[in-house]
Amino acid sequence: MVMATDNSEQLSCSQVRNVLASKQIGTSDLITEIPQVVSGEPKGICTSSKTCCLAKMEDHLVSAVKKDFLSLVQATSSYLKNLIATNTVKLQESLMTTLRMAETNTVNLFTTLYSKMAPAASSSVTRLFTRLSAFIQGKDVDVEEGVANFFDSLFPLVYHHSLNPKLTEFSDDYKDCLRVIRVELHPFGDGPRRVGAQLSRVLHSARALLDALRLGVEVLNSTEHADVATECSSALVRLLYCPLCDPNAVSSPSLANAIKDTRACNGFCMNVLRGCLANVADLDDPWNEYVKALESLAASAGAKGALTVDDVTATLPTRISEAIMHAMVNGPELTKNVKKKCGHPQRSTRDVAVDPSSMQSSNLSLVPSEVVSSASPAVVHSDLAVHLQSFIHGLSQSKGFYANLADTL
């Protein structure tokens, strides 16, 4: 390829320089003062017979077109990504709010019905809900184990304050023995197992939905930052950026029209984009399956009659109180079995005086549902279900997103 100065026309490269400068492409020393005639076989990407750009400018054109192309892909997918990311945050915040409400209601249960054990029980309640919250946040936590540990720590308190309220504080060794034998003696009946199983099931479903949403954002992020193949960048440069170096095109009244006129036809433009997005288009089937899976998860979470995080946590204070009542009803038999395993109660070396007026001041005329927060879990669940349904409806419109991406661009 040979470049020679064209003196036959009074064309200037000033407009080429201005346009490229406005787009921050290359440097002015890569632009000639007057157009150069290209003779022989073109060696670069651009094949115009007349140009204002030196050969090294093509490297800058390639960099610019890659940046612009990825920005266009990002702009096209940004709505979808923001839709998923925003609803992921909203869902997690809703779940965390539900857990905080349940923790408050559980603390209220002990304060109102089991005030004597309330101070010691509060730390066990905090540990339980800290563990449940950590699970929702993606930590490696065993929910059923957390529930079991809570009832393990609750048993010494119930055995002391509800079954032996006249005794002073138990020794630490005796408390440890009570915690160890809790599973064997089943002082709370089947309550702990059922609570653990239900909490585990609904929290795993909620976390599966959150994990799936986060996966969708990751997929879209990978698309936005995909490598642009050499064949793609070269085709895009020829389609859009080579005309920027052509003084005839830039001198046209409308640069947009000039660039449009250089395209052989709309089909050529579409073929270039489809070629650039060939690998991305392969994601369409997996993406459609992903959306279907989310639809299924959301349908299960919002199905009529299906237990939800709100349902299970709302009844947790009642379940805990029922477990304590079970131990109290079976007190004589339970005491006999405890003495077989741990012996007679060992008192703490810390001499704690017993105030008769403060002995288990349980207000058993109340029921657990009367001491929980006035906030309605049903309303929370209803709002969440409606919001989730609206989100999934919007997401369903994205089926075929990758297959139609070239047309959208």
TrEMBL record:
Keywords: Cell membrane, Glycoprotein, GPI-anchor, Heparan sulfate, Lipoprotein, Membrane, Proteoglycan, Signal
An example Gene Ontology CC term for this record: plasma membrane
UniProt subcellular location: Cell membrane
Any GO BP: positive regulation of canonical Wnt signaling pathway
Annotated InterPro entries: Glypican (IPR001863)
Family of this protein: Belongs to the glypican family.
Protein name: Dally
Gene this protein is translated from: Division abnormally delayed
